[in-house]
Amino acid sequence: MSNLRSNIVAWLGRKYFTRIQKNGFDLSKMSFLPDATLAPMRRDGLDPIADLSRTRAKEPISKIWLPFGINAWLVTGYDETKAVLGKAKGFSSDFTNLAERNIGVAPQQNPGGLGFSDPPTHTRLRRLLTPEFTMRRLSRLTPRIHSIVEERLEEMAAAEGPVDLVQSFALPIPALVICELLGVPYEDRDDFQRHSTARFDLFDGANASFGAMSDSLSYLHGIVRKQRETPGDGLLGMLVKEHGDELDDHELAGLADGVLTGGLETTASMLALGTLVLLQAPEQFAAIRDQDEVVDPFVEELLRYLTVVQVAFPRFAREDMEIAGTRISAGDLVLCSLSGANRDEKLGPDMERVDPHRQAPSHLAFGYGIHRCIGAELAKMELRAAYPALIRRFPGMRLAVPAEKLSFRKLSIVYGVDELPVLLK
What we know:
Layout: H1 4-16, H2 35-38, E1 43-44, E2 47-48, H3 50-58, E3 61-64, E4 72-75, H4 78-85, E5 91-92, H5 96-99, H6 121-129, H7 135-138, H8 142-157, E6 163-164, H9 165-170, H10 172-182, H11 189-197, H12 206-229, H13 235-243, H14 249-279, H15 282-290, H16 295-306, E7 315-317, E8 321-323, E9 326-328, E10 333-336, H17 338-341, H18 376-393, E11 398-399, E12 421-423
Parallel strand pairs: 4-10
Antiparallel strand pairs: 1-2, 3-4, 5-7, 6-12, 7-10, 8-9, 11-12
Helix pairs in contact: 1-11, 1-12, 8-10, 8-18, 10-11, 10-14, 11-12, 11-14, 12-14, 14-18, 15-18, 16-18
């Protein structure tokens, strides 16, 4: 695990100059788009940049420029985002929308799974997965989640000097939980982490991100082949045993990739950034340390406040329509800023700060509608177990460097901090 960062750098280096098509827009230029277009993926510390809130106040659905010859819109308002994400028949999330528009993405790069599919394919795949993500079925993982958390705390307690909370705590916990859920061997956990992290980072261009998806799918195809031969007791083994004739290898790998995508890097970022929030808020730190009943509302408020998944999957309008007075034409691309929507002043006062006691509508950190993250409850189980266990084990924990020295991702779909060095005593 100590070699994770160097592995990621080497892996990105191999993929950075990959070109999927000779013609069409070069996705490696993604980071050079105008600031207004990239605003949903930029932050100032833990907060979305001020331009995003100004845009939301002026135009909750605003025109943005894309170099693909595509008419594009950015949605930053809470009500407007719910309207778009809830209109499944009006918008398409299918990957072919990207591949068909000559923007440097090839059809064979389709990751499959739920995020980039529409009904009826989406409906069929989600129907197969949903039973495994009910609270009743997930409860079987509760003892293992607590065990994984305790194992990480024990290892941290044995360390001398500062500890990087990202590498020692935030990343390993969801990686091991997903290994447990999918039925992937424990020794493959480093591969799981490596195949998750870089795919969301667009700072060096989106080709690297799509290359990461391809690498991930190749890796998962190998896992699927092993499960076909000897089905295990995890999610993949169950799908093979119960629905093997209904799912081809690409669909199985896509579903596994979706679980990996939705549950590893996102939860890891929440664990690291949420801890940073607590380290800067002594009253909330003490409340989580001393009061079990405040943990659940605090987790929900953190999910809203941090919204680590900054934008939803791109939607393409299937037909002409009107959303909140804005005319959207068939074929238009719509990007929903989840971080912007969750800070909308319409939800209540002081949405720019953490308040576990606020009575606000449901947040959109996991999306909304048919594409709402299927693993939302699993992520919350991990957060509810990890935060209080960490603080109660290390009540004197503090940052090892000034907060202003921390390095955050500069342009990423999933926001996060590169390292979080802490002193435990």
